Each structure stands twice: as C-alpha cells, then as structure tokens.
Amino acid sequence: MRSEETPRLIGADGLGALFTALRDRGYTVVGPTLRDGAVVLAELDSAGQLPSGWSADTEAGRYRSRRREDGAVFAHCAGPVSAKTFVHPPRARLWSADRNPDGSVSAAGPDAPAKRFAFVGVHPCDIAALGVLDRVLAGGEHPDPVYTARRDGTFVVVAECTEPAATCFCTSMGTGPAATAGFDIAITELLDGGHRFLARGGSPAGTEVLAALPSVPAGAEDTAAATAAVERAAAAISRHMPDEPLPALMTASRESPRWADVASRCLTCGNCTMVCPTCFCTSTEDVTDLTGQHTEHQRHWDSCFSLDFSYLHGGPVRTSTASRYRQWMSHKLGTWQEQFGMSGCVGCGRCIAWCPAGIDITEEAAALAAARLEDAP
Amino acid sequence: MITLAVWKFASCDGCQLSLLDCEDELLAVAGQVRIAHFLEASREVLPGPYDVSLVEGSITTAADAERIRAIRDASRVLVTLGACANAGGIQALRNSADVAEYASAVYARPDYLDTLATSTPIAAHVDVDYELHGCPIDKGQLLETITALLAGRKPNLPAHSVCFDCKRRNNVCVVVAHGEPCLGPVTRAGCGAICPAFGRGCFGCFGPAETPNGPAEADLLRAHGMSGDDIRRLYRTFTVSAFAEVAGDAS
Amino acid sequence: MNAVVPVPHRIVDRRVDTADTVTVELAPVGEALPAFRPGQFAMLTAYGIGDVPISVSGRHGARPLHTIRAVGAVTRALHDAAPGDVIGVRGPFGTAWDVASAAGHDVIVVAGGIGLAPLRPVVERVLADRSAFGRVAILAGAREPAELLYADARRQWATQAQVRTTVDRAADGWKGPVGLVTALIPGMDVDHAAAAAFVCGPEAMMWFTVQALLERGVPAARIQVSLERNMRCGLGWCGHCQLGPLLLCRDGPVVGYPVAEPLMRVREL
C-alpha cells in the first residue's frame, strides 16, 4: 500500500538526477529505450535515452511504436524485452572444467557478474514477474546462483501504469496498474498540468535515493491526479481472464477440443515463452574447445514448444502442437500454482502482442471456460 | 588424429569457404585433424578411408550419383553442408520444370551438357549422419560439429524455429513490430537469426524447422501483404524441395 | 559446494551387467556428496560430452552404485569409462521409495528393463530386514534374456523371496515365461489386498502393471511408481521435468500411484 510518508514531486528533468544518483551508487541502470521500432529494456547511460514522447500500440500479433507530443516517458507497455533478460540471461555459463594431465578435473562455477542492476521505469506487472522468478529460481531448496548473483541487490524504480496497452490484463492477475510492493521507488507520471512525476519510497534504499533528488513535497492535487491516472488505467484495460479459479479450469480442460483448435493456429515458434517475463525454462549443453580438454556447461533459454524439450529415450513425449500449447498454457495459468504457490502469469500481455499468429491467451482461456460450461450437465 | 575430407557436388563453394573461414580455429587442432581431401585449400590428396567427410552440393549428374556412393563407403561419418546438399539447393527449381528448356535458354551448346533432370539432396542417395543447414552454413555450427565429433559427443544442432534464437539475441520481431513477412517461425534455427537482426525477414535458407505449421505461416504471410505467388516464391528461394510440404497448397 | 557444479568422482569398480549395461561404483575424489536414498537419482557428467540422470542402484559401504545403459552419446561415454577415470556427479535429487511404509506388509516389486536398477536398493533393504516384511515377490521383465540385470543378485534374492522373470522374446535356450511382466502378477504367493507394491519401468509397462495389481486387490495408496520426464538440471529450474503439477526432479521421481494416476491417464502430458 501507499507509504505513510508524503510523496515527493519530481520535475520532468528529475530523471537525469535519478540516473546520476543511481550510477553514483554503483548501479548499472536498465530502462526503456527505443530501438528498432520498439521500446526495449537496455542498459542506459543517461536519462536522455529514455523513450521520451513514444508510446506503443499493441494488438494480438502486432506492435507499433507511436510518436506523441507530450513527451511522456513511461507511456508504453508490452515491449519485447523484460527484466528477465538481465536477471535470468538468455545464455549463461553454469560451470567450466579442465582435464589436467594427470586425469584429474578442475572445475569452476558460474561467473559472478560485475554489475548491480537498477531497473528504472519497469511497470508493476514486471515487478510481479520478478517476484515470480524470485520464487521459482531462488525460493526453493537450491537457489540458482546465476539468478541470485544478478538479482540480489537490484534496485527497482517502478513506473505505475498510466497507459495500458490493448493487450494488457494485469487487473485480472492482480498485478497492476498500481505498484504496491517489490520496489525501492515508485513513480507515477503526470502529464496534465505539466510533465512531472510523483515519487514515493518503498524501501530504506529507495527513500535514501529519493532524498538525493531535487524534489518538493507533492500537493494533495498531485497525489489525487496520480491516483486518478492509475484508476483511469485500470478502467481502460480491455482484456480479461475468465472470472473463475484458473488452475481448476486448466485441470478440467486437459482433454478439451480447444487444444486442437489453437494448434491449427500455433506456429510452435516459441515467441510467447521467450517474451514472457516469467517463463524460466532452460536447457544446457556441454561445449568443448577443439582440444577437448576444456568444457563449458552452458545454459540457454529453452521453450516447451520445442520437440527436444520433452525428449526421453525413445522420443519426445509432447509431439503434437496441441500438447505443447497445452503444456505452456496449463503451466502458466494452472500447475504453476501447485508447483510454486502462485500464478505464472502476470497479465503483461507480451505473449499476445508478440505471437506472430496473434494467439491470445485470454481468448483461449475464455474458450476453455465456455467449452467447460457446455460440457457441464 | 582424425582424417577429414571435403567434397564438392553441384554448388557454389560457399559452404566450403565457411571451413576456410575457420582456419584460426583449425590451426589450434592441426595436430588432431588431418585434412585428407580439400581441393579448395590444398592440392594434396590422401587416400581414404576418412573419419569425417564434409559434403557440399547436390546430385545433378549420373557420375555424381556414383561418386557420392564411393565417398560414403570411404567415410565413417558423413556430414552434409548447406541447402544444396540437404535439399537440392536453388538448382532444384529444375525439378518442377523442363531441364532441356532451361539448358537451351542458358547455354549456347546445351548438347555439351550431361545432366540429370533433377537436383537431389545427398540423403536421397546415401545415409547422412549429420546435416548442417543454411545457404551458406553457419561457421559456428561447423566448428561445433567438428569439436563434437572430436570429443565423441552429439553436436548441438537445434531443430526448433529461428524465433528462439531471434529472441535470445534480443532482436525486435520484424513481423510484429514492422509487418515484415518472415519465414522465421517455420525455419530451422542455427544461423543466429542474422537476417532479422538486420531488419529483414527470414527467407528460410536453413529449411523447415522440426514441426512447421505451413497453413498458419501462410495465413501470417498473407496478413502481411503477400499473395499466393509471393509466398510460393519465398519458399522456393533456397530449399525448394525441403519446403515443398510446408508450402503445400496453403499459399 | 552448490548443486550446480559436478563433484569429481572416480570410478573404482565397474561390473558388466549386459552387452550394453554396466554398474559403476563411485568414490569422491575430494568432498563427498550426501548419501543417496533408494529411488533418488544423480546427474552424472561425462566431461566434455554432457550429463544424464541416473538413479542410484545400490551402494557399497558409503559408495553409490549406478547402473548405466549405453543408449546415447553421454551414456555411451559413461558406460565406456574405465576404473580410475573421473566423472562428475551432482545429487542426490528427487524423492525416495518409501520402503518403511511397507513394513508389516507383503511386498511386490515389479521392474521393466533398466527399471530394476532403481528398485534393487528397495529389494536389498527389504531383504536386509527380512522379518519386518511379509512375503516378498520380485518380478522383472526384459526384452531378451541377455538383457535381464543382476543375475547374481537375483539368485541370492531367490533364497529369501519369490523371484520371477519374463522376456518379450525368448533366446539363448530361455525356458521361462515369455510375455508381459503383468502376466506374472496373478501367480505370486502374496496377499494382494495386504501388499505394498513398488513399480518402475517404461510408462506403459507401469500403467498396465498397476492396473493388474489393482485388479488383484492391491490398494492404490500402497503402490509407488517411479516416473520419468526429461530431467536436465535436477534442481527444478529448467522446467523439463514437468509432468502436470509435478516437477519430477523435486516432487518425483517416486510418487504414490494416487498422485500419478490422473497424470498417467493424459496422453502427451
């Protein structure tokens, strides 16, 4: 919930000071920037690289960046890169080993990263996704050292969502558009009556950084404007999940004819899993050098849409596209709950926007729910 | 020490050049790999048998059909290189046309030609152990295959879509963000998603991925402005025979 | 040490079980791993080749034994490794057979092919504490007589338990039964309704075995099965080991049949 302290008001130029403050504290700042026609997350050197004056229009299978006059910095959603890329990188070395002349083996663990990341301008759904990854990769018996080395000590400046995309459904998943937890600083971008940001600390580290920025106490009007902006965003969200417990729906739908229907449209290209901010699946391979004495055990993002993913001696288990789509969606909305005590979906809508075939997980869920009602006696 | 031989059939030599491109890496193993036959690099020819044969090009003459069988017999492991060797290459366009008509349009004295009516992949003639796809092949995949064969492990040659690699390297999808037609969703990975990295759609030179959904891809291409003819041409660029089933009549 | 980097172990003994299968005994080069319980598995690394999940098939003192069938490049390399060679080990991973819960009951052990490997420590534990259990029946099937594992051990077991074997194809003068292992179930001298069962083998074999056990009256709650998916990391991070709600590296491989039943019913899950 909102902190007790009075929020601060930062001017449009305050983001530069924020970058400086974070860099002074040793952080590598990761934030949104426009690249190749999309707002992506990337390591940024200055606030000048933020996508000032850019929005994005999304639909199923479609994303277009759009110029805007008001200089808004955080009025975009569902870019193809999420924080996952930085804390759970597409490729990582888990260990390396060298065979010594006497036949013994010397092994070394994963590289420790030299960087501490500060995420600036990620949205509440992205914070929720980090929470999911925390649970999956760091919350079990064996914390993933690659993940924890990148995630521990990160600093998060969340930008509350004021302009959801048409593909967003965070309100169904309870992850936005307001920021409620998991951040060091929360900012709300205000455009009417002058471009400015309402900011509040969410942690001692956040309060400390906030105090170093030029700011004034926010007035009641600013606070009310921020609340209204977020409420407008919530009201503007047009996609929704069926209003029923999704794990039960997924379990009941294991034999639904809908899987064959979606399989006719699904390319098994894996894009949904790659852009998903919580899809964590990986595969490993041993890479040797040409001398054969040095081995690297490398990990890379994998996807349940590949045949090899379910490979057992004798062949893959999930050969049909229907079974692979079912695995993905059932895991995301259903079995994740049993495995990790939470939903795997945060409602960011990336899988909808970045599916080349425009498959919409909310539409598929609705179809499963409708089919289940039809089946009911 | 393994002996390596490189063989050329109907092709442009581009895939063999990828091997020449590896000279720095191969120097490191000069003691482990003996090049027994590689005319592009050396005139020295050692007799077989060979541990590994790398085969470039497609079979377009009766003599080549004989020669590939002899090579297979002399090779412990046979690896085919590129779209020609794996799918007949661009020259397989003749398979659905009149080769005599082609020849008379191209050559002043077509009667000098002694050619088969078809261009066929190596695997249509002999057993193939590993296929390296692409036009040309990817140097990284070639090195991976050689190192894997040296180490005795299975080469890491994924069969999933190009999109996996495209996203892993943080490319912005050219289809979704730019409306660019792209064969990435139905094309086998391995190139590192080079074309999308430069803002172009994939044109499928690696051939089909493991489970391509042809009709869905055709819907996608049509939605991005391609006609049936455009789609047919796109599939026919490099691996016409490999994509034949994917292209189907959906275009 | 974390569970990510393989811990070097030396092969100190290697016994040939069949034409393509060996059992190796491993001794840590440096630090030792925690003890493996029956049913748990290790990720074994052939350096430079890759790693594979291999269940523990017994122990010699504190040293784990692993039975390896050469079916791919990694298992081939592990199979071919000689005494003195160093391989990497991670583990123990996964759940164990609950042998204690079978105390006081008749015990039925049913194995298909290499599935006898993870069950051997169950048999040995039961026979080591013979009086704690009722009648014991051990059923093992294989494709061919030459593929039946642990001939010496089976002869020893037979002095304390009913041991029956069957093959898909007779050869080498085989005079025993030919056919599915399920066909042996009715002939066992056990009180099915009071028995506990341990089953491991290919998924279809386990399914039909369990149906046969249920038919004879073995209670579902006293049947345990060992499930398999594509175990890659052993730790539950890589997602490959999912079977519906289960991460088999963490929640399996050994699960009670009531948990497995609805999942085994679904094709391609």
Write a structural description.
The complex is a heterotrimer of chains A (377), B (251) and C (269). Chain A is of the alpha+beta class and 377 residues long. Chain A is 33% helix and 24% strand. Chain A contains 13 helices and 16 strands. In chain A, helix 8 (246-252) crosses helix 11 (321-340), helix 8 (246-252) crosses helix 13 and helix 9 (258-265) crosses helix 11. The model of chain A has no long low-confidence stretch (mean pLDDT 95). Chain B has 2 domains: 2-151, Rossmann fold (3-Layer(aba) Sandwich), CATH 3.40.50.700; 162-247, no CATH class. The model of chain B has no long low-confidence stretch (mean pLDDT 91). Chain C is α/β, with parallel strands linked by helices. Chain C folds into 2 domains: 7-93, Elongation Factor Tu (Ef-tu), domain 3, CATH 2.40.30.10; 100-264, Rossmann fold, CATH 3.40.50. The mean pLDDT of chain C is 95. The chains are: A alpha+beta (377), B alpha/beta (251), C alpha/beta (269). Chain A: Residues 255-287, 336-364 form the 4Fe-4S ferredoxin-type domain. Chain A: This is 4Fe-4S dicluster containing protein. Chain A: GO terms for molecular function: iron-sulfur cluster binding; metal ion binding. Chain A: InterPro entries: 4Fe4S_Fe-S-bd (IPR017896), 4Fe4S_Fe_S_CS (IPR017900), Helical_ferredxn (IPR009051).
- Provide the low-confidence segments of chain A as ranges: none
CATH homologous superfamily (4th level) name of the largest domain in chain C: Nucleotide-binding domain of ferredoxin-NADP reductase (FNR) module
Low-confidence stretches of chain C: none
Extended strand count of chain C: 14
| Overall domain count of chain C | 2
How far is it from the N-terminal to the C-terminal residue of chain C, by CA? 34 Å
Write a concise keyword list for the protein shown above:
heterotrimer, B: 251 residues, alpha/beta, Rossmann fold, 2 domains, 5-stranded parallel β-sheet, 12 helices, 35% helix, 12% strand, globular, C: 269 residues, Elongation Factor Tu (Ef-tu), domain 3, 6-stranded antiparallel barrel, 6-stranded mixed β-sheet, 6 helices
